[in-house]
Amino acid sequence: NTTNNSRLLRLSHPSTPTAAAGFLGFNSDGSSDNNVVTFGVQYSSSYYNVLNIKRSTQGVGLGIVNPSTPLHVYHATTNGVATFESGDTICLANFKDNSTSTSPAVGATADDLILLTSDLTRIRIKSTGQVGVGINNPGLPLHVYHATSNGILKVESGDANAGITIADNGGEVSVRAISNDLTFNTSSSETERMRLTSDGKLLLGTTSDSAGVGVSPFLQVEDITGSPYGRASFAYNGADAVGPGIYFTKSRGTANGATTIVQDSDQLGAIFFTGADGNDRASRGGSIQCHVD
Fold first, then answer.
1. Which residues of 86-102 are buried (b: 16+ CB within 10 A; e: fewer)?
2. Tens digits of residue pLDDT in 145-155
3. What is 46-114 written as a DSSP string?
4. Cα–Cα distance measured from residue 70 to residue 93, given in angstroms and rounded to the nearest whole number
5. How far apart are CA 229 and CA 263, in angstroms?
6. What's the pTM?
7. Which of 59, 85, 234, 268 is the most buried (most CB within 10 A)?
């Protein structure tokens, strides 16, 4: 059959010569780049182009007349437009460019989705929704594993603040990195409650080293107007005679855990009472000190 620039070869069964058929078609608008070869089926007066091969794109179209890529699959209503099936336990689709030596792949094993490089499974998404990175049997929604590396996860932002938010159905908290400091924050407004600075200081209620007492303590607690007035409490509950306590310990050693004996007049510990004088908060009003005698 010949119509305009089309050529059609129709194949049908003798028992239904007009009702149903398969056909091989060729269409051209006169330009060699737009030639299309079509394989299709015909039912009654309707023709369905199943597979189209187009010269200009060197593309194969399944369900589409004008494929825009080497393989273009289309269906107007079906969500699943392609299925790859293997008779083995794993089915893979491999990807390769002009420098690939071992093709990365995406595939299925049982009901799990897997991503491979160098023929090794790197990521697995279980049928239950759990994602494993470096592990085939993730025990949580996200499970990251490496057999030898101590650092297994890095979260990085191109901005000056990077964080991880943890939330349940009642609220959320976050842990953030600001420069080289680690902060702990509460609520969706990310109110900072505690900061561990890069030099090891622990700050509660303040975002910077603001003691202003003449030294820079490792632990700084600061509060503003109103309760709890910058106060701290220590409680112990037990059916015995022991109460809570604070230990101040001194050694003449120069390493953590040292037990080098102290000397006469060494200060074992002190509590200093200071107040602001308009310039700093180092003016001392009194102290409680203990010395070796």
1. eeeeebbeeeeeeeeee
2. 999 999 999 99
3. EEEEEEEEETTTTEEEES-SS-SSSEEE--SS-S-------SSSEEEEE---TT-SS--EEEEETTEEE
4. 16
5. 38
6. 0.74
7. 59
pLDDT of residue 155: 93
Task: Write phi, then psi, for 187 (nearest 5 degrees).
Answer: 70, 170
According to DSSP, the residues that pair with 161 across neighbouring strands are: 178
Amino acid letter for position 267 = Q
Q: What is the mean pLDDT of residues 44-70?
A: 77
User: Which pLDDT value is given to residue 29?
Assistant: 53
Those residues whose C-beta lies under 8 Å from the C-beta of residue 69, and which sit 6 or more positions away, are 57, 59
For residue 22, the model assigns a pLDDT of 66
Could you tell me what percentage of the chain is helix, strand and coil, using 3-state DSSP and rounding each to the nearest 5? 0, 40, 60
Quickly tell me which residue has 């004008």 as its tokens. Answer: 66
